[in-house]
Amino acid sequence: MDEINAIAARHGHIPVIEDAAQSFGATYKGRRSGNLSTFGCTSFFPSKPLGCYGDGGAIFTHDDELAQACREIRVHGQSARYTHTRVGVGGRMDTLQCAVVLAKLERFEWELQRRREIGARYGELLAGSGIELLTVRPDRDCVWAQYTVFVDDRARVQAALQAQGIPTAVHYPKPLHHQPAYAQHCCPECCEHSIAAAARVMSLPMSADLAEADQDRVVAALKAAVAATG
What we know:
By secondary structure, this protein is of the alpha+beta class. It is 37% helix and 13% strand. The protein has seven helices and ten strands.
């Protein structure tokens, strides 16, 4: 984030949007995610460390004018009832989802700690297995919204795990520059690391309530599946 913010500052203090959809609660050089740039945006999707029971999210900023603009945009551009000062969207979070998030705030720090512990245990169990893991740099931490590994022949590995009742997911199967909305802005062969990652990433079961016995079973099945496909 420091490097990105520096580029934005050099080119006229361009507002930077931090994508904190997976990192809410994590720290970067001693600061919490969501507080690292002009805007921080997070998701309260049910599987996240702070999740509601449907769709929800939040935007964070220290800029009062931008905060007001966000408030207006989220409610059809209204600055006051029936007064529309800009073009907006229907982006209000449902009251029920807000109630869920507020209630779960009480256990948020516990949730973060449990995810860190479970993520560390995955790393210990998979160490030396030959399965490629994500690296967390020493000046930050991770809250493991997902626990993602890199595998070859991913479809076969997923099928082997599914046969044992172990779900997996791919976050995400297509890099951004291959999405139809953005394909015109970049050549298909660009961003080779994104292309390679999209072909190999696979997320394992992750939850603050994941039992050690279940985690052991996931790891054993993963090692067996990778060995069989290797």
